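#lab-general

N.A. 3:47 PM
ok so I finally got the sequence cleaned up, no stray characters, all 112 residues accounted for. can someone with queue access submit it? mine expired

B.Y. 3:52 PM
send it over

N.A. 3:53 PM
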Amino acid sequence: MNERPVATATVLGRVEAVLRTVDLDCTCRARLDDALARFATLEARRQARRDLSEARHQRDLIAGLVALLADLDEVATDEPDASVFDELAHLFEDVANAARDGAAALRGLGRR
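B.Y. 4:20 PM
back already:
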């Protein structure tokens, strides 16, 4: 999985820190605070959709890899081409990596 973008809360915290230094009247400050709160909500939803999409992508990837692993049924212990075992081992590693990435995406959803 690609590295997650900077968390919305982190960016929002930076923006709010800068805006606290700006002298605004009460009405303007309230409107700005409301806008920032709405933005944070929208960003959280967007990230949740991204995480769910990523989990589904990893699931589909795993399904494809498992289909390729069906070749394991055609392999014998006395396989003349030993590289077949290494290729199949890589498929298992790819499944593990996709599972780890899918789990991370779902954990991201669970933290919301």
